Amino acid sequence: MNRAEQEAAVRRILDQDPPQVPAGLYADAVRRGTRLLRRRTLARRTLWLLLLTAAVAFAVWALTVRPWVQPPSQTTPPVPGW
Amino acid sequence: MIAWAGGVVRDRRAPHGTHRDRGFEAFVAGAAGRLLHTATLLTAEDPQHNPRACHLLTLALADTYAGWDRLRGDDPYDRTRQYLAGRFAREAWHRYGRLSRTRRRPPGVLGALAPHERLALVLRLHEGVAEEQTAALLGLPAERVRVLCDRAVSRLTHPARRPATAVDGPGAGAGGSGAVAGGSGAVAS
Questions:
Q1: CB under 8 Å to B64, separation ≥6 — which residues?
Q2: Does B99 lie in the same domain as B16?
Q3: In this predicted model, what pLDDT tens digit does every residue of B121-175 receive, in sequence order?
Q4: Do A1 and B188 touch (CB under 8 A)?
Q5: What pTM, to 2 d.p., does this model score?
Q6: Are B42 and B119 in contact (CB under 8 A)?
Q7: Chain B: nearest CA to A40, how far in angstroms?
């Protein structure tokens, strides 16, 4: 028995006796799929909300603290009458 | 802004929902039988009583349903099969591990084989997936897939030699059993 014949024999073994699809399988898959979709939508929205909150918080912080403005010098005393 | 985005999603989903349901229903009606057969072969259960295969297929179909709108021309059958194989491989890894020898033999026709041998054999011969694709799907080298498949084929065609090949190493076992199987096959036929 060569390789092709062996594979054909195994294919015959595999193809025999196919199972019956149970009736509730489609409804169950759709139910689980809908739940999966809902969960994904929720996760996506939560992430967007988090991103938006972070952006707003950063903007507010930047506008109040103004980190790009050079702070007034603390070491050199003011020189009057120069 | 969030409410606006949500509204757009909801508006788009209403007409698409029925469209998706119709397409998905047609897909399940056409493919569920073959996919369930594949799943039952993988789990090596009795075709008349296969709760694990049904559960596996339900999870795979649910994943396909959730990603139906983002298939973009991909074959839903391929996607479902990919999920099925990946899920089975992960479950087999967690569930069987080193205890597979001590477990009782499953009742299916492939019950004598180890889970990863079943996976390679079913994908290659029953599903007709090319060797390289099977290897990519399982994350194994192509040679390893060939060895697994050859070993499974020889074990199925000559079940009496099973203990002898099981004791051998992976590479030597496949080569040796193949040669022995060829010889005894010639004698038998």
A1: A33, B24, B27, B76, B79, B80, B83
A2: yes
A3: 999 999 999 999 999 988 999 999 999 999 999 888 887 654 544 444 444 444 4
A4: yes
A5: 0.73
A6: yes
A7: 9
Residue B126 lies in a domain: no
Average pLDDT over residues A43-59: 98
Q: What distance in Å separates the CA atoms of residue B158 and residue A63, rounded to the nearest whole number?
A: 78
Looking at the fold, whether B10 and B93 belong to one and the same domain comes out as yes
Residue B1 CB: number of other CB atoms within 10 A? 8
Could you give the CA distance from residue B174 to residue B165 in angstroms, rounded to a whole number?
A: 7
The domain boundary, picked from B49, B76, B111, lies at: B111
What was the ipTM of the complex prediction? 0.75
Tokens representing B8?
A: 């757009």
Q: Is the same domain home to B147 and B188?
A: yes
Neighbour count for residue B143 (Cβ, 10 Å): 11
Q: Are residues B85 and B151 in the same domain?
A: no
Query: Which residues in A lie closer than 8 A to residue B157 (C-beta atoms)?
Result: 1, 6, 9-10
Burial status of residue B135 (CB atoms within 10 A of its CB: 0-12, 13-18, 19 or more): buried
Contact B176, B147 (CB under 8 A): no
Whether residue B56 contacts residue B84, with contact meaning beta carbons closer than 8 Å, is answered with yes
- d(CA B99, CA A71) in angstroms, rounded, equals 68
Is B28 within 8 Å of A19 when comparing Cβ atoms? Answer: no
Task: Work out the angle between the directed axes of helices A25-65 and B2-43 (0-180°, nearest 10).
Answer: 140
